[in-house]
Structures are given as structure tokens and as C-alpha cells.
Design brief:
Elements (H helix, E strand, L loop, with lengths): L3 E4 L4 E6 L2 E6 L5 E4 L1 H6 L7 E2 H12 L3 H17 L3 E3 L1
Helix pairs in contact: 2-3
Length: 89
Amino acid sequence: MSGLLAKRRGAFSETAVDDEIVLLNLDDGTFFSLTGTGAEIWPLIDGTRSRDKLVTVLAAAHGAAVDEVAADLDVFLAQLADAGFIENT
């Protein structure tokens, strides 16, 4: 994904429960549960950061290799995009 990443406002409902973020797709009723790193990444998708910036932030925060973070992040972002929760702006 290139460009800035943003949540598709109006396409989902979001609720925080303890350390979990629950997303409900308003089009098809599908639920997503974000915990751990997924819950950490979700607030960072705010329309001001690109995929590359997210990789940099996460690699630094976790002391991880950029290549490893990039591969895992790409899978996660693809799942969110396929579910209709995020888009490139």
C-alpha cells in the first residue's frame, strides 16, 4: 500500500474493550478483534502515516528488523483493506 493510510470512517463501528479493539463492518456485519500489536497499530492508522512510516515506527518501538516488520505489517494491512476498514488517501 502506498500513500497515506486512513480508516474508512462510516464503514465500521469501533469499540474498545479492555486491551481489545472490536471492529464491526457496517456493510456485512463482520467482526474483527484486534489485540496485541494489531491493537497497537490501529490508532496509528490516522491518515497522517504511510505504510513505510508505520514500518519505521513499529521497528523502532519493538527493536525489530525492518524487513520482518514490513512483511507482518503488509499481511495485517491487506486484511484490514480486504475487510473494508482502511484505504489509501
